Amino acid sequence: MEKVVSLCKRRGFIFQSSEIYGGLNSCWDYGPLGVELKNNTKGLWWKSVVQEREDIVGVDSSILMHPDVWHASGHIDNFSDPLVDCKECKHRFRADDLKELNKCPDCGGELTELRQFNLMFKTFMGPVEDQSSTVYLRPETAQGIFVNFKNIQTSARMKPPFGIAQIGKAFRNEITPGNFTFRTREFEQMEIEFFVKPGSDLEWYEYWKEERYRWYLKYGIKKDNLRIREHDKNELAHYAKVCSDIEYQFPFGWAELEGIADRTDFDLRQHSKQSGKDLNFFDEVTKESYIPYVIEPSAGADRSTLAFLVDAYDEEEDRIVLRLNPKLAPIKVAVFPLTKKDNMPEKAKDIEKMLKVYYNTFYDEKASIGRRYRRQDEIGTPYGITVDSITMKDDTVTLRDRDTMEQVRVPVKGLIEEINNRLNSL
Ligand code: ATP
Fold first, then answer.
1. Which domains occur in the chain, in start order?
2. Residue 396: how many other CB atoms lie within 10 Å
3. Nearest CA, atom 2, ligand 1
4. Which residues does 210 contact at the CB level (< 8 Å), separation at least 6?
5. Nearest CA to 171 among 140, 149, 148, 147?
6. Cis peptide, bond prior to residue 251, ω within 30 of zero
7. How far is the CA of 18 from the centre of ligand 1 (A)?
8. pLDDT at residue 366, rounded to an integer
């Protein structure tokens, strides 16, 4: 893990937040390469769950919501973790992480009584800081979907089974954040609420487990590092009938990338009760009316990005290589003049300009060509194009593959087609 963290800092994937002030615990900033990788992760998710399907539409709801939302959803009463403190060393623990509840795992000291700690961040809306102006930073994006259920179902003319997807920030005042970007207090979720007819929920639950598991494999996660773990009854959240986690084998152990839960009709029923609005779906054909059940695949954009990074990291004798799926790679093509002479830089810049319309590219003329290839290998750039003396005669370039390091000659006018073919074959 240290190697990935160090690469992330060195090459500009991820930095600690407010680093020049000593950093802010558990908050991270994505640098130039990190923001590309995370955007690609979110883009591929959106493409697969919204754009390539006919039964899911998107939404982007606000982070601050009416406080009644969180009463109805149960978050004000139930969204808490059990907390204990050590009376000696003052370390703080999530009680459900501890093997023994009467001894501090760090110093052996006595622990305080267990108390429930609500994970929602509170703030105030407007100039007066009192109870009536209290609002919460959303701890999940899901509620923005539930409260828009009727708006979207009627305006987009959707009929169960159908889904609503959203990508957005969520905030949780975690007791023990850590493991780099794995557990933070501000993070991004990629959530689907998939509305189905009651009775068909378990079938759709199985479908989404399989579908989402396959998505991680498609974008390069090694099968041995991915598993689905079904929750025990006592692990279930207050709204869930059944739930599974898709887990990744991080260097610190197996841990959740995504949860898939059968939330039943809990949320829509609660919002209907609290708001007084009818949230039934009325089927014009069968004349049935019902509150749909919901299957929720809820993934973390930061955790997926971290898993893709960790899984892609590889060391060979003389190079570090990030074997990212090319569709995830921050930069798709790097363009190099072999030397700075004979108009090679000008030619290489022209080629880069031509490619930039289609892909994120990078131009580099510094250091030896071997060094330049290695710098791109380390950040996962799948293709390297070199302009050499032959280019100046016959308008061909070498195209180097990151993984095999094989080089082939390609005519400049066939480059876009060649790169597209390679990208689309994945
Ligand atoms: P955990 O058990 O790890 O605390 P959770 O079961 O509370 O996670 P969910 O409520 O199911 O998580 O949230 C859905 C997804 O949101 C998780 O699978 C994860 O990818 C992401 N997520 C949740 N909490 C965090 C966090 N503190 N930091 C980063 N991502 C998170």
1. 2-65+141-311 (3.30.930.10), 320-424 (3.40.50.800)
2. 18
3. 256
4. none
5. 140
6. no
7. 24
8. 92
